[in-house]
Each structure stands twice: as structure tokens, then as C-alpha cells.
Amino acid sequence: TQSQNDQLAHEVGSLLEYTHTSKCLHTRATHII
User: Fold this and answer.
1) What is the predicted pLDDT for the residue at 20?
2) Residue 21's closest CA among 32, 13, 33, 31?
């Protein structure tokens, strides 16, 4: 259904955003150390 697709898209978007943020934080942390 449409609502399931929207939910899935939202979860994927959140996951990508989380991954991107984690990479940025990791990179920043490595530079500080």
C-alpha cells in the first residue's frame, strides 16, 4: 500500500541520514585525535 511505501522511504531516509552523520562525526573525531 501507499502508506507502507511512505513508511519504508522514511526509514531508509533516516538510516541514510544516520549513516552520513556517523561518518561525519567519526571523521571529525579522528581529526581531533
Assistant:
1) 96
2) 13
Q: Single out the residue of 7, 25, 6, 5 nearest to residue 17, CA to CA.
A: 25
The pTM (predicted TM-score) of the whole model is 0.63
1-33 pLDDT tens trace: 899 999 999 999 999 999 999 999 999 888 876
Q: What is the DSSP string of 1-33?
A: -HHHHHHHHHHHHHHHHHHHHHHHHHHHHHHH-
- What dihedral do alpha carbons 18, 21, 26, 31 form, nearest 10°? 180
